[in-house]
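To fix ideas, we quote verbatim a fold written out as tokens:
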Amino acid sequence: MKKKRLGWVWVAGILPFVLLLLMHWVFPLRVSVSYSPVITASDGSVVNAFLSKDDKWRMQLEPDEINPVLKKAVLLKEDQYFYYHPGVNPFAIGRAFVNNLTTGRKTSGASTITMQVARLLYPKKRTYGNKLVEAFRALQLEWQYSKDEILQLYLNLVPFGGNIEGVKAASVLYFQQSPRALSLAQAVALTVIPNKPSSLRIGEQNDRIVAFRNKWLQAYGQLNAFPQQAIEDALQEPLEAFRVQAPRLAPHFAYRMRQKYPGKPILKTTLNPAVQEKVQQLAFNYMQRLKALNIHNAAVLVINNQTKAVEAYLGSSDFLDDMHAGQVDGVRALRSPGSTLKPFLYATAFDKGLITPKTIISDVPIDYAGYRPENYYATYNGNVTIERALATSLNIPAVKVLDQLGVSAFVQKLQQAEFAEMKRRGQHMGLSMILGGCGATLEELTNLYSSFANSGVQAPLKWLQGDTTRQEKQLLSPAAAYMVNQILTQLQRPDLPHNAQNSAYLPKIAWKTGTSYGRKDAWSIGYNKKYTIGVWVGNFSGEGVPELNGTDTATPLLFSLFNTIDYNSADGWYQAPKGMGYRAVCPESGLSVNSFCQDQLLDTYIPGTSSVRKCAHLKKVTVSEDGKFAYCTSCQPNGGYMQKWYPNLAPEILSFYAEENLPFQKLPPHNPGCNRIFQEFAPVITSPTANMEFLLERDERQKLMLHCNTINEVKKVYWYVNDKLLQAAAANERVFFAPDKAGKFKISCTDDQGRNTNSYITVKFL
């Protein structure tokens, strides 16, 4: 009998646990809380937030945000035995039952914090039956979660009136601060609201809230829960709280982060709130002045060069400007980059050994199969150095360097730099791409310039604080990056804003401007050792404005940004890297000095990579003693001659000098008695463009222009059309002819030394 009795006792004791396990399996606990996506800055402050899926302001509270004062006040008020009961407090239930029975009405409750969490997760009417369900759910919560996790859930779900739930949302929307910064008075005020969230609304019933708050503060004082002085200070603290709109700093950035990382309740970004606020304020105020010029939009991106963190992100200067598409994200918009790709082109050419900063290149009219690039001011400079070509943003030298490098090679470098348009359409690019004939975003360009600030190393932008990946790639050599840095730091350049040169507030930065065709986009991108800042100004509508240009429209804002967020930067400047050398070059060519070079300049170069060609800006010519004729090796007499140095000018430079009526030393004509026919340095036909089709008006008797470039000693050329002599002309003279019929034409040019060039065109009449 005794064994039977023990068996029944054992069954009776274990049966409730079996039933609970069975109910737990049949009615599993599901905790699915829809939180408001919150974007936080590098200091933890909320910069932007969005409603949850059920249209609540319910911001997830993190463990380190739980204010110890708030935690203690909540536990003392709601459930002081929270850490000791299994989810249900039998003593509280007994006390409530006795009190309610003796008074005949409900005077106290027995809900623990865990039971309140269960009710918040599964809201139901307050009946005794539902209380049993809450108790069961509370036990489930205790089985699956720790006490701290349950308390955190409570603080995340507790109501504060309207559609505000959770301590974090209440702290941000009522007190405009983080929960961890709540004072004792503020913390206790928040503990009293959940009991009557509809009748204790902050901003509407602050006096009533203060009365309830002080009542509990006095109770805490009697319990010696907090220092007496803290209690007295809290009792005197006014409740100056009211509901405000959720933070809306960096809206474009926030929308992008929400899209980039969907489903995450908290996105801890690298955004620097102080920098972001200054960028927004400066850009907004600056654009107010440009509205009179019909310029309405601007975008700014600020990158920390040391960490690659995005510290400021401004998609547009006025997000709320519906009239001018303020919601467009200018950081990601595909626009024409103007001249902003030139530094990267020259740096790539440095690494290929094609040029060095002092290399001479011609800035004269040129034709590439019908493509005739022009400089910004439609002027030409003759021979210029590469550094001057970049510092003054000349177009023709840039096109020439791209032609030498090869479009496909440059496209590959831009693809390596993660330019999306180059990955999509790189095979369709031509020489015009270096002048803005392609698409790029402010984000791509700013990150590209950041590689100049990091010795040629590029890495993906860092958006989140926890992102520790660092996929670096060496886009450029440190030497090439340094050469570009030195050129872009020069102040003697046309893209310095008017009246800025004498300004005491000119920042120490390297920068480059750009203006797209049609004056639709104005760019200015600059960097120092700490920051790279990209600025775009224009109209999202694509409307061009005559006054729009990178120099006077975008650069003033760039300078203001640097002077504001990094004034008098103490990080110093770039030092010459290992792997870069210095050598003497001739200023006439930029090549290593030769025996006839009288002057020398110091130039930077990359040993083992840069060209080692010697200067050839002069050539020795055998001439008669009277200087009237030049002799070749075939007709050089036995005596009566001398050797003399003459400028070795390129044919296009000779044509330019002749066109501009600029003086230059001419070679004497070649010995007319010489019968030798030369093969090298044949005339270069620059017009009409070879292999082109020309549409002419028959009735207008339209004419085609013939022109060629020749070397220095050529004085006369002979033009032929379909092998018939048209006209003899001076070497740089322009000749015209009117085709008499449609069809293919052979254009030939022969110089006075017998060298010949042929070109073919097609003529059609309208």
